């Protein structure tokens, strides 16, 4: 892909993010101030769906929410601490394959602080892995990417998702952002290498692969780099 084409892709990406915070359609719900997502439910208990499945809560459920928040306040937990604790618990459950528990913890984090893009990140992964809804996962990733409180790793996961779903060109500007956010992340550089190769930028793709190889990549990433080197015919030794 020539430089002009890269700029066009990046501009389209920026325009898509800007539209995310625009006026909501009738089937959309504001999940954070100025940010909307499609109202969607899945075949699972409400607290195991993204955003509780947007279901109207019963008085008992509302009381349970209030009790949770009051309990955190009584323990003297700062909002940020409580949020991070819930998120960490959710990701731990996710890595253990306990997707139901992970979603429950992510919903608790959303209840504690709905302004955080980390919740969109988590719910996107839940939508993709548990409910096999790539379109909704992409929407949640895109919405979170438009927020200004993204954490390192968000864009890397978003770009990886796009690569896996066959959207290499869309992934490239995302992965460019990912390596800016986490310049020492071997996975981010490896994924950028594949995205650049998909876009026809072989030399810069080889450079990204070289960067990844020098950042002590985990075993699975090292295997990916060998596959990449064979495809790209890089001159550098990975």
What does this structure look like?
- By secondary structure, the chain is mainly alpha-helical.
- It has two domains: 3-151, no CATH class; 168-238, Serine Threonine Protein Phosphatase 5, Tetratricopeptide repeat (Alpha Horseshoe), CATH 1.25.40.10.
- It is built from eleven helices and two strands, in the order αββαααααααααα.
- Strands 1-2 form a two-stranded antiparallel ribbon.
Strand % is under 5%
Distance between the termini: 23 Å
β-strand number: 2
Question: How many structural domains are formed by the residues?
Answer: 2
The pLDDT mean sits at 87
Main β sheet profile: 2 strands, antiparallel
Write the layout of secondary structure elements.
Blueprint: H1 3-20, E1 28-32, E2 35-38, H2 59-74, H3 79-95, H4 99-112, H5 117-129, H6 134-145, H7 154-164, H8 168-181, H9 186-198, H10 202-213, H11 219-232
Antiparallel strand pairs: 1-2
Helix pairs in contact: 1-8, 3-4, 4-5, 5-6, 6-7, 7-8, 7-9, 8-9, 9-10, 9-11, 10-11
Q: Which terms would index this structure?
A:
238 residues, mainly alpha, Serine Threonine Protein Phosphatase 5, Tetratricopeptide repeat, two-stranded antiparallel ribbon, 11 helices, 65% helix, 4% strand, disordered N terminus
Offer a quick outline of the entry.
With 238 residues, the chain is mainly α. It is built from eleven helices and two strands, in the order αββαααααααααα. Strands 1-2 form a two-stranded antiparallel sheet.
